[in-house]
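Dear colleague,

Thank you for sharing your sequence with our group. We've completed the structure prediction you requested, and as agreed, I am returning the results in plain text so they can be pasted directly into your records. Please verify that the sequence below matches your submission; if there's any discrepancy, let me know and we will rerun it promptly.
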Amino acid sequence: MHSGEKKGPILALDIGSKRTGVAVSDSQRQMASTLRTLERQDYQQMLHRIGKYIKEYEVKLMVVGIPLDSRDGSYTPKAIEIAAEARELQKHFGISVIGVDERFSTSKSNDFLIEVADLSRKKRKKVVDTMAAQSILQGYLDDPKKGIDLRDIPDGKCQDTGSE
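Please find the predicted structure tokens below.
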């Protein structure tokens, strides 16, 4: 269903408005590991870092968390925005990018950090995004059929013109 090689590491991104969490899989695509959280204030620097990870880990595929509506799984405006960014990343880096339903990944990671790791809010902010990326990636590794083809997500260019 999805293009992209069947072997080699996968890079995962949890794209947020302020930070982007990054995780990577092993080359056998069995286990996801956290990498780091990138600040989005310098977008070019963030792209540079992602490019370095792609080269360093010899990434063959990227997955990006898509925030579907928690009630019905529909595409939210934020999902459409992130899918557009994912398509740009695909063009920029020349590797396949697949969307993954990220509902609850950040809140589950946050809950874990509060309950198990007992981290303060300040410390949680530093790791929650990369843990969410790890959760997104592990979900994809466990069931690749849950991947979302970016072509299936509206591009947001066909807006209602209000002609009714």
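Summary note from our side: The helical segments are 43-56, 77-93, 105-115, 121-142.

Kind regards,
the structure core
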